[in-house]
Amino acid sequence: MDHARGRSPPLETLDLETSEFQPGARKLYEKHGFSVVGSHVMRTGPLFSMKVFRFHRRVAD
What we know:
By secondary structure, this protein is of the alpha+beta class. The protein has one domain (2-58). 23% of the residues lie in helices and 48% in strands. It is built from 2 helices and 3 strands; from the N terminus they run αβαββ. A 3-stranded antiparallel beta sheet has the order 1-3-2, with helices on one face. The longest helix has 9 residues, at 23-31. It is elongated, with a radius of gyration of 14 Å. It starts with a helix and ends with a strand.
C-alpha cells in the first residue's frame, strides 16, 4: 500500500486475483481490506479449470 501511495501520480485502487487453490492468499487480502468483487473460471487445459477470485481495494482507505 505504501508503494502504491508513493507513486507519482499515486494509485487510487488496487486489484488482485487469486485462485480457489490459494485460501491463504484470500485470507491475507481480506485481512488487509480487500473485498471480493467478482470471479471467473479459468481453463488451464482440456480437462482442468479453476475458479479465480478478483479482489479490489481503494489505496486511500
